[in-house]
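Input (structure):
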């Protein structure tokens, strides 16, 4: 039986529905990719992408009563989560914000109920959800809250051109204003983040002895305290404590020189201190083929490495690249296989 993966289709006015359908259809032989979104809207979108694509709508109540039916690869299942307003590609509508969140809630319910082995999320628009009256800072934080997970870690991964191994970059802090980052970085935070990275690289990726390289916060990793003392007072003690717990965590290294092959060849993951310290490098090397992975959750969740691309969606179907979505599904399948091994 093909493993069942829930794919939440994201912001309906963006490219999420298109890349979800195209990637799910391309990989339907490997996985039972179940789309979660407005069934009528997705059926219309699919027919415009390729008349050969077949969708089969399922109601939430039917799933709760009888579980997920086993469709063959000749069609994709869609769990119907109706939108509140008509979709105009490229144009956000606050009325649909709560429906987008409902797709995430249903995917979580599906994992808890045993319908799905993993969740893959298409990009959504944070502003639309906030404008709908729901405080929302991102998929990562929302899934952590909904699963009661005290600490999660955002990690992006991709295979740079010519590289022999994937580049993985995890973040100590995620969606924070830059001025709030130094106060957020504590020994306790770093201990929790490093423990999660080490545990999930072992558990979800099958890496027996992970090697984690850690950046400093300041330019030149503080330059012995002349450019800041966070490395001396916080990061170095946190890394020493991690090594005492048996974790191979090295650093802190200057972020401007760490991302070189001669250093990365010894790394299973780089831990950066903040969002725009590590991700520009990763996205420059792998954009459009990268995968966003949430570590620390009691489930498997992957996503794309890009946003909703409203401007592209407004120009019509056929322009969006679904490579990152395909990679996200493939990564979810690999982690699901690792989970079944355990």
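Output (sequence):
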């Amino acid at each position: 039986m093909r493993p069942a993966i829930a794919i939440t289709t994201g912001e309906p006015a963006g490219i999420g529905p298109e890349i979800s359908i195209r990637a799910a259809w391309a990989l339907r032989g490997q996985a039972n990719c179940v789309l979660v979104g407005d069934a009528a809207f997705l059926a219309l979108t699919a027919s415009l992408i390729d008349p050969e694509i077949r969708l089969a709508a399922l109601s939430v109540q039917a799933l709760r009563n009888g579980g997920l039916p086993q469709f063959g690869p000749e069609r994709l299942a869609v769990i119907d989560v109706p939108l509140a307003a008509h979709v105009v590609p490229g144009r956000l509508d606050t009325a649909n914000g709560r429906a987008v969140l409902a797709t995430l809630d249903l995917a979580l319910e599906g994992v808890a109920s045993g319908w799905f082995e993993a969740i893959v999320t298409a990009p959504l628009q944070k502003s639309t959800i906030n404008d709908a009256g729901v405080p929302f800072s991102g998929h990562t934080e929302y899934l952590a809250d909904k699963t009661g997970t005290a600490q999660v870690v955002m990690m992006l991964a991709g295979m740079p051109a010519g590289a022999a191994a994937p580049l993985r970059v995890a973040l100590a802090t995620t969606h924070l204003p830059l001025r709030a980052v130094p106060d957020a970085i504590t020994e306790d935070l770093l201990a929790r983040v490093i423990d999660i990275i080490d545990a999930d690289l072992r558990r979800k990726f099958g890496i027996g002895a992970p090697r984690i390289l850690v950046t400093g916060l300041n330019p030149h990793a503080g330059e012995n305290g002349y450019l800041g003392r966070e490395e001396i007072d916080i990061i170095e003690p946190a890394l020493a404590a991690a090594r005492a717990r048996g974790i191979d965590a090295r650093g802190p290294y200057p972020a401007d020189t760490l991302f070189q092959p001669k250093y990365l060849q010894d790394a299973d993951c780089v831990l950066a201190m903040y969002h725009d310290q590590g991700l520009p490098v990763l996205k420059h090397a792998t954009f459009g083929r990268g995968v966003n992975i949430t570590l620390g959750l009691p489930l498997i969740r992957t996503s794309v490495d890009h946003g909703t691309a409203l401007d592209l969606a407004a120009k019509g179907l056929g322009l969006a690249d679904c490579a990152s979505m395909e990679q996200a599904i493939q990564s979810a399948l690999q982690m699901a296989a690792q989970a079944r091994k355990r």
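Notes: The chain is about 40% helix and 15% strand. The mean pLDDT is 95.
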